[in-house]
Specification:
Number of strands: 21
CATH topology of one domain: D-amino Acid Aminotransferase, Chain A, domain 1
Helix content: 25-40%
Strand content: 15-25%
Radius of gyration: 25 Å
Structural class: alpha+beta
Distance between the termini: 68 Å
Bound molecules: adenosine-5'-triphosphate
């Protein structure tokens, strides 16, 4: 397929903020795409070459692109750079320069989706000496053959700024309609996506084998499964009621969630956000290889740091120091040893376990593990009585845990990959003290600072996530709780996410001075949740023309690097917290 066709659809998608229109455009695009190119189209749509878990980065610096463009357009790098500074978008600069370029002097070959993808792939894999020259050469060849419109999107893709705002679920809807006629096929497609975390792969399966292929979709060891998540409730009584009178209370360890894919040859570890973290935790990989008695398995657990002297569990912040390291990894493993508490098995010796009920999965898990000092199975007790649950909560907290995850034990208690549901309910200590839980919020904009904060941000505009609408809704302006140096660093930190206009998936009534692509997650504490006509969180759900806002929000200092923007506190959770707060106030009155 010609790349220009894709560029034209990108242009149309960019011009709409309506999800239905976007879906229609995608359906048409998918139908027009040859089957063997569908996965490439799906990746390119999201500005990627591979699923996120492979961590393949294009790695093209803006400077490099500027150099390539300058050569192609016969202009100086200074001129290109100057235009970029004005437009703020290398895509627009490239489009303009290619329009001016004398067309007659150059021989062009039409670009295809595959040629563009393959060239980017070569760029992504270029390494070692001479790789910079190779990247420039490859970029030049792309831009030489590109029309101005193609150039715009190639440039944005190259520097990681192709942001059409096409959410995963919109792609799944479009695949369902294109291959199944309507949205009813979305469910098996979504399941396939939840079991593989790879939209391109799901698209290629449905293109090749149709919906029948998707219905038979299989887990692959090495492709991470999207994690099952908990709902929350504030009391033992409500939790047991919700679970039909009985539940299995597991300790909620406060560390890093790890999904381990184990074969006789190798072990891969994935984080909660599905990054491959095997290289950061070689000790955990070795321990699991030794401890798990199975040919092939996918297990999940929480990794926590332990005090070398006392064996006590250490807070989340300690194990966090081992994340993202490239050097002295083995030394860190010695200094900060960890224990993994396993709590689930999702795949065992060729068999998908995600549809097996929880108690059975737990039995399987116990069978394949020989517990040792550093590999254990999560503490679990079945409880029917709220007082017993309270007691377990106290025990869990006393042993250094955050609280409990109380799990459904019925025959329906499958592993709901990629979903936050009521089969697992968390009960955290903070609710007990009747202090509100913290919020995990996403900065989607910022207000310019004044006085001491001149040149930096005065406050960030923070949002919750609304998974139904796939949108980010504002909840507060956040300006306190930051250390001075953090504040000074903020503009630099947020620079990669800076955009000219409101992101298509942001829902805001406020107009900040800067807009961001929703990317980071910050933990925020507050005194109270109030109704607000200025914020869009839970808009109209409590009162018409009102959303929710936080009173006295403050940053706790915790950058939730383990969470993606879609893992932020949801608007529904905020509405529930508001209702709880009302009840509490009523009870006290
Ligand atoms: P939080 O910020 O409360 O950890 P979260 O959004 O990361 O929440 P939730 O699904 O809401 O994730 O809470 C469950 C998390 O608790 C899991 O993601 C996992 O990392 C951790 N956890 C610790 N112990 C257990 C356990 N025994 N069973 C399941 N999850 C556990």
């Amino acid at each position: 397929m010609k790349y220009v066709k894709l560029a034209e659809v990108f242009d149309e998608i960019e011009a709409t903020s309506k999800r239905l229109e976007m879906t229609d455009l995608l359906v048409k695009l998918i139908k027009d795409t040859p089957r063997d190119e569908i996965s490439k189209v799906v990746y390119l749509l999201q500005g990627k070459l591979y699923p996120d878990y492979l961590g393949v980065e294009l790695g093209i610096a803006e400077k490099l692109l500027i150099k390539a463009v300058a050569e192609i357009a016969g202009k100086s790098e200074n001129l290109v750079d100057g235009d970029f500074k004005k437009s703020g978008d290398l895509g627009l600069t490239v489009e303009k320069l290619l329009q001016r370029k004398s067309q007659a002097t150059l021989v062009k070959r039409p670009l295809t989706v595959s040629s563009v993808y393959d060239t980017f792939d070569k760029i992504a894999h270029a390494a070692g000496s001479g790789s910079v020259d190779l990247k420039i050469r490859l970029l030049r060849s792309l831009l030489n053959d590109a029309s101005p419109l193609e150039g715009k999107f190639i440039a944005r893709m190259a520097v990681g700024k192709l942001r059409l705002g096409v959410a995963d679920m919109t792609v799944l809807d479009a695949l369902a309609i294109a291959y199944g006629g309507d949205k009813s096929a979305r469910e098996p497609l979504e399941r396939a996506y939840n079991l593989s975390s790879d939209l391109g792969y799901v698209a290629s399966v449905v293109a090749k084998d149709g919906l029948a292929g998707v219905e038979k979709f299989k887990i692959t060891v090495g492709r991470p499964i999207r994690p099952m998540l908990c709902e929350r409730l504030p009391s033992a009584r409500e939790i047991l009621e919700k679970l039909g009178g009985t539940g299995a209370a597991e300790y909620k360890y406060d560390g890093l969630r790890v999904q381990a894919h184990i074969t006789s040859k190798e072990v891969h570890l994935f984080s909660r956000r599905l990054e491959n973290i095997t290289d950061q935790f070689p000790d955990v990989a070795r321990l699991l290889k030794k401890t798990i008695k199975a040919k092939e398995a996918i297990v999940e657990g929480e990794c926590i740091a332990v005090d070398i002297h006392t064996g006590d569990m250490l807070p989340f912040q300690v194990i966090s120091q081992r994340r993202g390291r490239k050097h002295e990894i083995e030394k860190m493993a010695e200094e900060i040893p960890v224990t993994i508490f396993l709590f689930d098995v999702l795949y065992l010796n060729g068999k998908d376990q995600t549809l097996t009920p929880y108690l059975e999965r737990r039995k399987q898990l116990l069978k394949i593990i020989e517990p040792s000092e550093h590999v254990k199975v999560a503490e679990q007790v079945e409880a029917r009585d709220p007082d017993r649950l309270e007691q377990l909560m106290d025990e869990a907290v006393a042993s250094g845990c955050e609280g409990l995850v109380v799990k459904n034990t019925s025959e329906q208690s499958v592993y709901q990959a990629g979903a936050r549901g009521w089969l697992w309910i968390k009960y955290k200590r903070s609710y007990k003290a009747e202090v509100q839980d913290t919020f995990d919020l996403v900065p989607i904009g910022a207000f310019a600072g004044r006085g001491r904060r001149a040149g930096s941000y005065g406050a960030l505009l923070m949002a919750v996530y609304n998974p139904k609408e796939e949108a980010f809704e504002t909840l507060c302006k956040l300006g306190s709780g930051f250390k001075d140096e953090d504040l000074l660093n903020l503009p630099k930190m947020m620079q990669p996410y800076l955009i000219k206009q409101k992101h298509p998936r942001v829902n805001s009534l406020m107009q900040p001075d800067f807009w961001f692509v929703p990317s980071m997650v910050l933990e925020v504490a507050a005194d109270e949740i109030t109704l607000s006509p200025m914020h869009t969180c839970g808009w109209g759900l409590i009162r018409p023309r009102s959303g929710l806002a936080l009173r006295f929000p403050r940053f706790t200092g915790n950058w939730r690097k383990d969470k993606g923007p879609e893992d932020a506190t949801t608007s529904q959770e905020s509405v529930e917290m508001y209702r709880k707060q009302l009840k509490q106030i009523e009870a006290e009155a």
